[in-house]
């Protein structure tokens, strides 16, 4: 049975409409990836929309079509990381056992590093400079989350589930240890010989950090030690 020219045009039009969302999403993802690299390499002020477009292999007008401004694009990338950081912190709950919660938290932080290495580098740089480009409520959300996490660890210590350590410095140590793999990626490559940690490497990182944290925070009654802290 032959197909009329009208039917052919209708079928082609339907295929075209179906393909447009796919093309738009691919362009959007290419712009996000290119922007991550550009912002991570140069910072917000020095990064140019034109350079982002060149990296993404799209027109400059396309960048504006999807994100309107450079600021919107920057904040969109940072929002993904901030939401992931807050989600990781939600694993620290007073009702849970820290022997489970702390390893889960470490792995969640490492997952952010692995999934969004360039965006996480952007986030670290933004916070290092005092979060000048973030809406005022975003840093407040992070401060409130840190306060809640500190209070959770303090409760674990009061219940005798953790050694009497400083909760703030425990959180800072975990954040620093996980962030090292994006902040100092060139140093890591010199040590490991790998430009990017692979799956086995991330598993080794998670296992090592978990062991260090759990042994270092174990209650003295269950993990006695003859070591005494040295004066600074």
TrEMBL record:
Residue ranges of the annotated DNA-binding region, renumbered to this chain: 48-67
Taxonomy, superkingdom: Bacteria
Chain ranges of the HTH tetR-type domain: 25-85
Any matching Pfam family: TetR_N
InterPro entries: Homeodomain-like_sf, HTH-type_TetR-like_transc_reg, HTH_TetR, Tet_transcr_reg_TetR-rel_C_sf, Tscrpt_reg_YcdC_C
Alphabetically ordered keywords of this record: DNA-binding
The keyword DNA-binding is annotated on this UniProt entry: yes
Entry-linked PROSITE patterns: HTH_TETR_2
Keyword Acetylation set for record: no
Protein name in the entry: TetR/AcrR family transcriptional regulator
Organism from which the protein derives: Pseudomonas triclosanedens
